[in-house]
Amino acid sequence: MERLDVIIVGGGLAGLSCAYGLKDSGLSVLVLERGEFPGTKNMTGGRLYLNPVYPYMDGMFDDSVLERKIVRERWTLLAKNSSLTFDFTSEKLRYENHSYTVLRGRLDKHIAEKLLAQGVLVVPKYRVDGLIMTDGKVDGVTVGDERLYANVVVIAEGALSILTRRLGLKEELKANDYAVGIKEVIGLSANTINERFNVGEREGVAHLFIGDVTEGIFGGGFLYTNIDTVSLGIVVKISSVINAYPKIKTYELLERFKERFEIKTLIREGETLEYSAHLIPEAGFRGCAKLYGNGVLIVGDAAGLALNMGFTVRGMDFAIVSGILAAETIKEAYDKGDFSESVLKGYADKLKESFVLKDLNTFRHMPDFLDNDDIFAHYPEKFPAILEKLTYFGCGPKGKTWDILWPFIKEMVSLRTIKVLLSAKKI
Ligand SMILES: Cc1cc2nc3c(=O)[nH]c(=O)nc-3n(C[C@H](O)[C@H](O)[C@H](O)COP(=O)(O)OP(=O)(O)OC[C@H]3O[C@@H](n4cnc5c(N)ncnc54)[C@H](O)[C@@H]3O)c2cc1C
What we know:
By secondary structure, the protein is of the alpha/beta class. The chain contains 17 helices and 19 strands. β13 (219-225) and β14 (229-237) form a beta hairpin. It is elongated and about 85 Å long. The site of flavin-adenine dinucleotide has 41 residues, from α1, β3, β11, β14 and β15.
C-alpha cells in the first residue's frame, strides 16, 4: 500500500491547524475525523483568544466565521438566594479584536473546507481504531480492517486521548484531572441579544458563574453570546461530582441553572437548538503528555494542553498553535529525512518557546489553588449576603453600617482567608 507523508487523527482545531500548516509543503496529508464533518463532535464554551494565535494563523480564518467580539466580561458569585455580579468593559476590549465567541460546528467546518479547496484530504466518518507499530516506530493507523501507513502520525484526538495513552505517552485518566462540561446552544434573535446584554452589533459578553451553580463543588457555569444564539453550560470536576454528598446529577445542575432568576430572564423565549457534553483536561502542566515519539506527535487536548485559570478557560488557542508548531517540525523532519523522536522532539522545544507551555508552566499551581471548597462554596455565599444586608430595608430602624460590616470583616480577615491568599501567591 502507498505510504502517505502525514496522517492526522482528529479534525478538531489542533488537527486542522496542523493540516493547515502543511498545506503548502507538497507533502501528502490525510486528516481522519470520526464525526459527520469536522466540528460536529467538538465542543467548547467558548471564547477564543485571538492575540496569542495571530502570529501563527496565516489566514486560516477571519472574523467572518467568528461569532461576537467579547466587549463585556461578567463574573457572578451565585449564592443560594442572591448573587453578586462584576461587570467589566474597557476600550481595549471594545476596540481591539481581543477575543471572540465561537461555535465549533461553524469554525472547524470552515477550516476543513478551506483545506479541501487547497487539496488537503479531510475525510469525515472515519474513526481510527489503532496505531501500526513497526520496529518501535508509529508507522500508520488502522481503521477497521484497513491499514494506512505514514511517515508521521499526528494524534489530535482530543481530551479522551485513547491512542495517546495506549502509546504510553500520557497517564491513565484520573477523575481528579478532568472536568466534564454540559452545554446548550439556545436560539435568540440577534436584536434580543443586543438588548438583553447591552451590547452592539456583533459585540458580546463572556459571563462566568461560581457557587450555587454547581452546589458549591469545583466547577462553574458559563454563558457566551453568539450572533443569534447563546452558549449556556456548566463545568464540574469529575472527582468532585463523585465525592459530592448529597449526590449531584450533572444534567440536573444545568436545569437548575436555567431556572435561576439571573439566567431565566436572559434566555426567556429562547429555543434549545443543541445539547452536548465533553471532557476537559484540567491538570494543567502536570497533566501534559510526552509530546512526541518515534514517528508520532501529540497536539491539542490529546496532549493535555488546556488550562482552567479560574476566571477563564483556555484550550483552543493552545490547540491551534500546537497544531501549527507540529506542522513546522514535520517539515523540518522531511528536510532531514528523519522521523525519529530525536528530530520530532523539536516540536516540544518549539512549544516550550511559545506561550503555550510558558503559560501552562506559569499557571502550573492553578489546579491545586482551585481545589479548595471555600472558592466554590464559602465566598460565593458570603459576599452576596453582605450586599443584601447593606441594601435591604426592613420595617424597623436600620442598624449602623459598621455593625453590619464588622462581623463580615472579622470573618474575612481569618486564618481561612489567609490560607487562600497564601496559596494564591503561587499563581
Ligand atoms: C465545556 C467546555 C468549555 C470550554 N471553554 C473553552 C473556552 O471558552 N476557550 C477555550 O479556548 N477553550 C475552551 N475549552 C477547551 C477547548 O474546547 C479545547 O481545548 C479544544 O477544543 C481542543 O481542541 P482539539 O482539536 O485538541 O480537540 P477536539 O476539539 O476535541 O477535537 C478532537 C477531534 O478528534 C476527533 N477524534 C477523536 N478520536 C478520533 C479517532 N479515533 N479517529 C478519528 N477522529 C477522532 C473528534 O471527533 C474531534 O473532532 C472548553 C472545553 C469544554 C469541553
